[in-house]
Amino acid sequence: MLRGLVIVLLLANALLWAWRQGWLGDAGLGAAPSGREPERLAQQVEPHRLRLLNPPGAAPAPPDVAAAPATAAPEAPANDTPSAPADAAAGPSALPAEPRRCWQLSALPAAQAEALRRSADTDSALRGRVTEIAATLAPRWIVYLGKFPSAEALQRRRAELRQAGIDQREVNVAALSPGLALGTYSTEEAARKALQDVQRQGVRDARVVQERAETRLLTLRWPDLTAAEYSRLQAALGAAAKGLQACP
């Protein structure tokens, strides 16, 4: 029995070797592999167009050449010319800006300020460029002597008051001049108390009057004026231009 098994194995090996050699053909055992492979050659399309990249005996291509892409985008040529400054592209350098200043007429009564504003607006270059800052001047009362009939009479009375040690000053309000103020107060009540003290010092003809009522004041400002515009403002304001001052 062992001999029969050996004979079967030998026959199987012989058949396998004959099939690998192609001797059995297609006799029910499938296509035998062949080094010639005629069936593959029959399936080729336009075999004459095939080209071997590395034919037998040729040296292998360098790694960097083989890995290089078929076409490389050309690099842009380097520009050695330094870039021009941004302001040069815009044209010639601009001239320095002309200096400007702010000018004002401060603490004017409202009626006077409005008149001067209208005068300045007659110049088209200044029209609408004024700004107003409002303020209120508090009322004021004084212990008053006057009116005196003349400036000489006022000076004689001043000498008497200085000799008695009583402080005084001249009143510049047109309705009360020539006259003297023996004290200035923010309320009428304070002025009446001071009047009693003056009367005890022997000044019998003094009285309390309001030197100034509550007054609304306006400051007129013309910002950002060039030297030429400032000259035009002076011409438009006339004599009042003497009060122009630089804004703080």
TrEMBL record:
Segments crossing the lipid bilayer: none
GO MF annotation, one: peptidoglycan binding
Domain SPOR: 135-211
Region (Disordered): 52-95
Any Pfam family hit: SPOR
Biased composition (Low complexity): 64-95
Signal peptide range: none
Protein name: SPOR domain-containing protein
Organism: Tepidimonas thermarum
